[in-house]
Specification:
By secondary structure, the chain is of the alpha/beta class. Helices cover 33% and strands 27% of the residues. The chain contains eleven helices and 15 strands. Helix 4 runs antiparallel to helix 11.
Length: 331
């Protein structure tokens, strides 16, 4: 039975903990957070306020890192140095530099497994879409569209001020809310030729707000596919993410967690629907659990069939390219 620890008990941690509780081959031995009041939330587990002390005393087989972005690389590195497997919430780090540093560590430690939580790859709708695309039955892919229109008020940022500081978050809507969309777009499109994009703030934020609330980009892939990406957290509510792929013979659209196909003869059909996550965080999707189950199976069998640090590099590079672009083409 694998011994597991959780570091960071913020919003996303409950998704991890609930998924871990459903696994029969693991035991949560301890949790850690600098906020001591959170001990009351999980009275059945040992609680630490210092993750280094926890790692030393518990010596877990795996640790789940659910911390603010700026701590991801640092804590993951320390866990790996102690020969502990890591399940790391996105993003890998606050920038490409940290991402590449963790990639180096991954390559030097092939016996340690590091899974990055880009769980939307396992959404039933996306898996089915990729099946159709890879089959070639509907011709080559011509275009990809990714749209995210969500809502994040100033209260959201003021509740956890690190979110609005570049040195702590690494950015706004791109790295925090829509890195999954960029990840899926690059999985479909392949290697990127160039990007031309802009970032902007559509809301009037306070003087401490250093990140972007809106981003737009035209993405050109080396194989000729073209993509359009638009993301904002200034909409009136959390609207459905939309991912659309145009092929030579059909249009595939994921919206409201449903995949549909529209053929040129007017035929339209529902192909798949995602599992739903209950509660107010429904927009997270339900694939955290699928990825966590998959990762622990890999820990048992020795398989490498999980999402590695190297898999997370392209979306981080896309974010950096859009930041640098400011309307210029970045290759």
């Amino acid at each position: 039975m694998k011994k597991v620890c959780v570091i960071g008990l913020g919003d996303i941690s409950s998704i991890h903990i609930n998924a871990l509780k459903k696994l029969g081959n693991i035991r949560i031995s301890a949790m850690c957070d600098i906020d001591g009041t959170l001990k009351r939330k999980y009275p059945d587990y040992k609680f630490y306020s210092d993750y280094r002390e926890m790692l030393e005393k518990e010596n877990p087989d795996c640790v789940h890192i659910c911390l603010p972005h700026y701590l991801h690389y640092k804590v993951a590195k320390e866990a790996i140095e102690k020969e502990i497997n890591v399940f790391l919430e996105k993003p890998v780090g606050i920038d490409v530099f940290q991402t590449n540093k963790l990639l180096e560590i991954e390559e030097k430690n092939p016996h340690i497994k590091i899974c990055v939580c880009l769980q939307n790859r396992l959404n039933r709708t996306f898996e089915k879409m990729m099946e159709f695309i890879k089959s070639g039955s509907y011709g080559k892919v011509k275009g990809i569209k990714g749209i995210v229109t969500w809502n994040r008020t100033d209260e959201y940022y003021n509740l956890k001020p690190w979110r609005k500081k570049m040195e702590y978050s690494g950015g706004g809507v791109m790295i925090n809310q829509t890195i999954h969309t960029l990840d899926l777009m690059q999985l479909i499109g392949g290697k990127i030729k160039n990007i031309k994009g802009v970032t902007v703030n559509l809301e009037d934020h306070d003087s401490e707000f250093e990140i972007e609330d809106t981003a737009l980009a035209k993405i050109k892939f080396e194989n000729g596919i073209e993509g359009i990406y638009f993301a904002t957290v200034t909409y009136s509510e959390n609207s459905s993410v939309e991912l659309q792929v145009i092929t030579e013979k059909a249009k595939f659209t994921i919206k409201d967690s449903i995949l549909t196909i529209s053929e040129k003869n007017g035929y339209k059909k529902i192909l798949a629907e995602d599992d739903k996550l209950e509660g107010t965080k429904f927009y997270y999707g339900a694939s955290h659990e699928k990825l966590i189950q998959k990762f622990y199976k890999c820990l048992e069998t020795g398989s490498d069939d999980y999402i590695h640090v190297k898999d997370a590099v392209p979306s981080m590079k896309m974010i950096e390219m859009i930041k640098k672009s400011s309307g210029k083409i970045i290759k």
